[in-house]
Each structure stands twice: as structure tokens, then as C-alpha cells.
Amino acid sequence: MQAKLLFIAITTLLSTAALANNHGHNGQMEKCMNAALAKHPGKVVSLEAEIEKGRGAIYEFDIVGTDGKEWEVECEAKTGKVYEEELDVDPNSEEFKSKAKVTMEQAKKTALDKFPGDIESIEYELENGNPVYEFDIKQANGKEIEVEVDAVTGKIGETEEEVYEIGKD
Questions:
Q1: Could you name the domain of life of the organism this protein comes from (predicted)?
Q2: Can you give the C-alpha Rg of the chain in angstroms?
């Protein structure tokens, strides 16, 4: 039942955005989605509304590109401008393994020491060519925090609080 409701929500969101764009609507979410798809043409498989420390409200789009690659594109909700693009990679890919100096277990400990909770998902990404671990952590208060740990230095990078998500993670 949840999968069916999720499918309906995504379909409604995407078709509404497409319809709105055909009528000249310039809403920021739609502007962000169009900017993300202009950078990486393909299919949006999820949308997250998040709050990033120091940046404020953002939209994050997961896109399966027409090139078969999976992209995470972040856009400022206020301006509608894309400011970050990350390529999802296999943890065993040469691109990731050859540069990573910190293990996933070390990165996981770093993230959980700062943001205690349960890890919901782990992603391996290249951010400007640099390997990054990304953890979605569900905290005891019910909030979900997205934490990036640099796979070279082991330091925490961006942290974002998820407001809502539509689509597959």
C-alpha cells in the first residue's frame, strides 16, 4: 500500500511540475528540478526538502541520467540555483577505492559519534572527484540527518536535516 501511495505522490509531483512548466509557472521547486535536469538529463527518482546549516532550505534531487549514472543534485530553494552535484558510485569502483583513505566503518563511527542514531542508508559518492561517504541517520527524536564524511580526511562535511522525501532513497 505504501509503495502504491509513493508512486501516486511521485507521479502527481512530476506531472504537476511538467504541467506547471507548460503554463509558465516559475515556482522554485520546479525551477530547481529543471536546473538539475539541465545539468543531468534523465529521470528524477526522488526529491528531498532539507535544511542545510549555513545555506538554509534546499532541494536535493536523485536523478538516473540518460547516461545510466546516478546523480545527486542540490539546489538552493530560495534562488533556484544548483550549487552541488555528486555522482553515486560503487564502493568497489576504482574511482572510489583508489582515493579513499578512511574505511566505511571509521566514517560510520565518526558520523554516529557526532549524530547518534540508526543508520538508514549509506551512499558512496564522488563530490568534485573526491570520495565521500553519505549516511542517513534517524535520530531518537525522529529527525533524519544526512551526514557526509570525507573518505580521504575522515572529517565531517555537510550535514542536512531532512524535512520530507518523495520517491525512492
A1: Bacteria
A2: 16
Q: pLDDT tens, 41-85?
A: 999 999 999 999 888 899 999 999 999 999 999 999 989 999 999
Name the residue with cell 534523465: 42
Cell 563511527 -> residue: 109
Q: Which residues, listed in sequence order, are joined to residue 62 by a DSSP beta bridge?
A: 46, 72
Burial label for 38, CB within 10 Å (0-12, 13-18, 19+), is exposed
CATH for the stretch 94-167? 3.10.450.40
Domain 2-88 carries which CATH code? 3.10.450.40
* pTM above threshold 0.90: no
Packing angle of the helix pair 2-22, 28-39 (nearest 10 deg): 90
